[in-house]
Amino acid sequence: MMLLWNVIVPGAIAALGVATVLASSSFWLFALLGHFRRHVAVLALILAPLALLATWPLALNIPMCGAALAICAFNIVTTRRAMPVSPASERDGIVLRVIFANVLRSNEEFGSLINWVKAEQADILMASEVSDRWVAALRALEPQLPHGHGVRPGEVAILSRLPITRSQHDSSLSFARLASAEIATPAGPVELVVVHPPVPTRGARGAAGNAGVIAAVGSLAGKACGGVIITGDFNSTPWSPAFSAMVAQAGLVFDRGARMPTWPTWLPTWLGLPLDHILVGRGCTIAGLRRGPRIGSDHRPILADIRYLSAP
Q1: Same domain membership, residue 286 and residue 228
Q2: Full-model pTM
Q3: In what order do the strands lie in the sheet with 178-185?
């Protein structure tokens, strides 16, 4: 039994080390491992003390324990560096309450989301996987969010309490997976972007499509003349290469709450992945972010209070 233990523990540590290295690969299949860096870190942390319990010579126990701790530390640092945090919010400026939800096309629990949006008195709702039935159901929010209804050339939608001065759906990105709208606020214009890239697990083409849509978001955010609020089900963790490049390119920031997993709802939270995000830039800061209730989708919605002074 102890001999088996002496094989399993080092084998598991070696496997985690290989996964950590391959996660930085440009090959789409290996790159998928990068989304599980936090899971690798936790497993490595568990294996570190187990390595000390093995019956190897002490000269081997300590290096194996150190290797596990190094794997854990590398993955934690990598994920944290990829998520720059919004600075402390000032008291001045305006505050916008923003909700994002992947509503799931087949989900017909319309009231769950609508009642929550009303109760939270949201100023902006952005959504993905919006079907025709969802377009009709969301008209119940017109008294609260009168702008943006009825526009659905694709699967993403933006509803706003404030006037929309310009809107655009990018039909070149596979069934309008990206939409933007500029709203007029007392502090100046704010660019809203909602996105839902393809799933990167569907081969090299899906991975390239996911990276392409995310890159388009960064380009769009970088050209905004006012504040920027970006939301979406990115089908990607923030520490993937494409996501990290977008954040750096557009100078975007997260809230600490963005590390909370949002998918899938049918697994324990600690096993999930943070795929749904709200990010800001150009004069916007996040005063707080939290997950919403279950709405019948396989994703949890998220809510952020965003303070906007003015664009730099």
Answers
A1: yes
A2: 0.92
A3: 164-169, 178-185, 188-195, 227-233, 276-281
